[in-house]
Amino acid sequence: MAQTTPPAKPRRTSPPRTIARVVLGAFLLFAGVAHLSFAREDFQAQVPTWVPLDADLVVLASGVVEVLLGVALIAAWRWRVAVGFTVAAFFVAVFPGNVSQYVTGTDAFGLDTDLKRLIRLPFQVLLVALALWSTGAWRDRRELLQPFRRGRML
């Protein structure tokens, strides 16, 4: 019988990382609430026309996801590595909407020129990096695989 070792205690993150994680969580909470309420129409403008779902449904669903991710960033510190990768993946998943807004020239959120819409695109890369850095996800990525290593069970 294989001997199992207890899971490693999650490494702590520095105060700047923790502050960044909480601020990013608050940003996602705010954005999620905006999706569900006062900025719903602006967010609908970002849903690419090739998405085979109703734009309002996409906005509502992504708003709920953003609220949940925001809460997870703030409160689920024990699972911060998985949350960090999930938030980064979410930012990658919504990037086509930003590209679509640029390509189609759709005005929303004060992005009323092609230059403004183009300048916005690289900021998505920064959000991905912030999600990975603030949670320590990239640094501690091996934690995610520990339960699956040889001799370990879930």
UniProtKB/TrEMBL annotation:
Domain of life: Bacteria
Entry keyword annotation includes Transmembrane: yes
Signal peptide interval: none
Subcellular location: Membrane
Membrane-topology descriptor: Multi-pass membrane protein
Pfam entry (one): DoxX
Full protein name: DoxX family membrane protein
Naturally occurring in which organism (per UniProt): Pseudoclavibacter terrae
Origin organism lineage: Bacteria, Bacillati, Actinomycetota, Actinomycetes, Micrococcales
